[in-house]
Q: What sequence folds into this?
């Protein structure tokens, strides 16, 4: 199974991740943008995620809440700035525990021979914010999400 | 008169601009976020700007329209992601003629001895987008806007 690739060059504002999925991009895009499916793949295995809002259109808001075993809740939210099905999403992302630290995320879906490469570029306000996100263990969290996403795709 | 400073390091996603204004930051912040004042300073001298929407609060939308002498209209819009008066604004920025190319702008207002340093950091989705913005003459446009903004401050 192809795993997540992640690149974060020194002293840059970007984290770039990508992975190939064995599915056509219409299906990958649909799965990625379906509010009923988000709880099945978003975030690491040990938390539960609920979708509070997810209005996948330009100007629409998304908001997810993660709950851990101890009952702690963590909110994540943003605004969709571009939705071009099945090619591209642009949205902002904010962890509500760290208000005002916003990142701009662009997810691109490229199909080659029936497989889909999903490319996720996150741009941070500062290099320090980006490095902080990496140190917080985001690679492990993202890898788990994308593993879960692949498992989900196989069931669709 | 202190002029606009602009830094765009090679191969980075950011454009950083700053300038000192001879006014307390409460006034600078208020002028910057007042919809009735935006037409007096936003954009170069030779165009007219009207505010279509400007809801300065987290999640609020802004949209300005520029008209040139030939009657061409150009729309610019975005969403406020953080509003901390009189310290900081975070918002997205999109030129509607180039949809899907979004930038994330953070404006910080720092007061020192009654003067205010306004620092504007724009983060682009790609280095190419950033370089394209520079090549489009944004420095001239920004310098004119900030000159007009200083003139406006003197009248308040």
A:
């Amino acid at each position: 199974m192809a795993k997540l690739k992640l690149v974060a060059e020194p002293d840059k504002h970007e984290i770039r991740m990508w992975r190939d999925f064995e599915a056509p991009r219409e299906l990958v895009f649909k799965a990625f943008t379906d509010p009923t499916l988000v709880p099945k793949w978003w975030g690491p295995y040990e938390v539960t995620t609920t979708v509070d809002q997810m209005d996948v259109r330009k100007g629409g808001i998304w908001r997810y809440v993660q709950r851990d075993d101890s009952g702690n809740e963590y909110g994540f939210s943003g605004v969709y700035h571009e939705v071009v099905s099945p090619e591209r999403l642009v949205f902002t992302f904010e962890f509500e525990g760290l208000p005002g630290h916003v990142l701009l995320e662009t997810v691109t879906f490229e199909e080659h021979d029936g497989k889909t490469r999903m490319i996720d570029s996150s741009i941070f306000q500062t290099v320090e914010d980006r490095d902080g996100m990496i140190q917080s263990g985001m690679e492990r969290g993202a890898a788990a999400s994308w593993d879960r996403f692949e498992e989900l795709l196989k069931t669709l």
